[in-house]
Amino acid sequence: MSVRLIDGALLAEVTAEAQASPRLRKNRNFHPRDDYPGHRLLNALEPGSYVPPHRHLDPNKDETMVVLSGRLGLVTFDGQGNITGTAVLAPGSHTLGVDIPHGTWHSVLALCPGTVFLEAKSGPYLPLTGDELAPWAPTEGQMDAAAYQATLARLFATPAN
Predict the structure, then answer these.
(1) Fewer CB within 10 Å: C terminus or N terminus of the chain?
(2) CA atoms within 13 A on the CB side of 15
C-alpha cells in the first residue's frame, strides 16, 4: 500500500466521474474491500442526485461526513417524515461536517456542482434494508423521486444558505 494524497486533482477526478454517472454521484473507496471493518471514502455528489432518506440500524453504523469541496445540504427527519433539522456543510464555513448517530433518519444533497465529502463508517458494506429506507419517501428510481428531491433542495434556496 502507498500513501494516497487527497488533493485538488483527486477531487476533480471523482467529481468528473460523478458528473458522468447516471446517478450523478460516485464514491472513491480508500478501504480495500466491501467487507473491510473500517470504511473511508470520498463521496462526490452533483445537484439532482437523489439520496433517499434512510437510517442505519446497526449500532456500529454511525457515520461521519466532512465536506472537502462544494456545499452539502443535510436534512434530518423524525419517524413520520417530518423535518427535524437542516444544515449546510461547506469547507471553510462554520459547519463543515456532521456525525450522524445510527438510527437517525437523514438525507444529503449537493447544493452546487463539485460537492465532495469524506465519509467514514464501519464496514462491512451492506445494502439498506426495508426497515432502513424511509417508508414515507420515494426510493431511488421511483417516478416521484425527482420531485421529492426538488422539495428537499428548496429547503436550502434561501439567501442565508
Answers:
(1) N
(2) 17
Here the cell at position 128 is: 439498506
pTM over 0.90, yes/no:
yes
CB 155 within 8 A of CB 75: yes
What are the tens digits of pLDDT across the range 109-130? Answer: 999 999 999 999 999 999 999 9
Do the beta carbons of residue 94 and residue 138 sit within 8 Å? no
Cα 46 vs. chain centroid, distance in angstroms? Answer: 11
pLDDT of residue 159: 62
How far, in whole angstroms, is CA 158 from its chain's centroid? 21
Contacts of 68 (CB under 8 A, 6+ apart): 6, 11, 42, 91, 116, 117, 118
- The answer for residues whose C-beta is within 8 angstroms of residue 150's C-beta and 6 or more apart is none
Torsion of CA 3, 14, 21, 118, to 10 degrees: 80
For residue 145, how many other CB atoms are within 10 A of its CB?
Answer: 15
